[in-house]
Amino acid sequence: MKNVEGKIVLITGAAMGMGKMYAERAVAEGASAVVLWDINRVALAETVDQLKHAEGTTEVHSYLVDVSDRNAIEANAALVLEQVGTPEILFNNAGVVRGNKYFWETDNVSDTEFTIKINTLAPMFIARAFLPAMIEGGKESRLINVASSAGFVGNPRMASYAASKWGAIGFSDSIRLEVDQAGFKNIKVTTVCPYYVKTGMFEGAKSGLMTPLLEPEDVVNEVWKGMRKGAPFVIMPKSVILNESIKGLMPTQLRDLLVGKVFGIHKTMDEFKGREGK
């Protein structure tokens, strides 16, 4: 896929951060329509206004959607299919981060449920709402599921988040295999697994050895290239792959020592604060 010109692009968590940047990319490349889903009414309105004033003929549609609510997902997906059409590019980008406490110290246990709903269940329900139409349409299409490098390695003070992203990776890669096995060669599924990104969501998180904090622009560039190519995974930085490689080679205690003490990963969430007004 050279670009998204003439295509319908839907992005969740589109009002700010990388979601907004994906929307700007889609408008710049001449998408026929960009569909923005977000729960932040004010930020969503501001982003829509900016995109509508950008050069080009891209239609901009916005929907106030709480993706933690399955009924809201299904209702708004039906509206998109009726009012705009079938998305050919679908970014499951919305996500939340909770951390800085050991799991048993968590004051609000609903945070765990909320994290799973947003990071794991929402991408599943959204994909289920749109995939049948994407398959029936037969057009060159992409499904991009934003997970995290935390889905590859357990880490103290982020048990719920790591669990949610492990689930997201398992789901996304299974869907990739399913559409291929079913013969739907027009659809490619990409699972995105970055280290901590400097968007504000990971405010206070620290880098580790060979795992620097990532610039949003760099992540968006790599994801966009991977999306167009239909790459199975976009993993950043590449050093994250090292942990996957040593899982089958090292005893668990030795790997814990390497990842935790040498690379310093197990201390990266000690001072986590997150986005103000989360």
Automatic annotation (TrEMBL):
Indicate whether Glycoprotein appears among the record's keywords: no
Q: Does the keyword Hydrolase apply?
A: no
Any one Pfam family here would be: adh_short
Sorted keywords for this record are: Oxidoreductase
Q: Name one GO molecular function term.
A: oxidoreductase activity, acting on the CH-OH group of donors, NAD or NADP as acceptor
Annotated family:
Belongs to the short-chain dehydrogenases/reductases (SDR) family.
| Name of protein | SDR family NAD(P)-dependent oxidoreductase
Organism annotation: Nocardioides cavernaquae
